[in-house]
Amino acid sequence: MANKVSSSNTRHVVPNPNGGWDNKRGGATRAGSHHDTKQEAIDAARRMSQREGSELKIHNRDGKIGQSDSHGNDPKNIPG
Asked: Which residue intervals make up region (Disordered) (predicted)?
């Protein structure tokens, strides 16, 4: 299933098969919130992800991850 989400410390924005976009926590079967537009779902998921310090995965209409954001504790010693 393309919309399967994993990792409980990750938020996912996924297309809903009945229309609109869902904001789900990794491993959840139910959406935490539903939105008419992808941008509304991204905005809500980003706020939650920043508050939780979690990863954010934004899926395309085909279910594949198109964008990722990290709001967690990234190591400070990564070059570049």
From this structure: 1-80
pTM equals: 0.79
CA distance 56 to 19: 21
Q: Considering the domain boundaries, does residue 58 fall inside one?
A: yes
Residue type for 56, please?
L
What is d(CA 10, CA 13) in angstroms, rounded to the nearest whole number?
Answer: 10
d(CA 69, CA 66): 11
What pLDDT does 2 receive?
47
Give kind and range of the element (H or E) at residue 44: helix 38-52
Q: What are phi and psi of 15, to 5 degrees?
A: -70, 140
Is the separation of the CB atoms in 38 and 21 below 8 Å?
A: yes
Whether residue 45 lies inside any domain: the answer is: yes
Domain count along the chain: 1
Give the pLDDT band of residue 78 (cuts 50, 70, 90): low
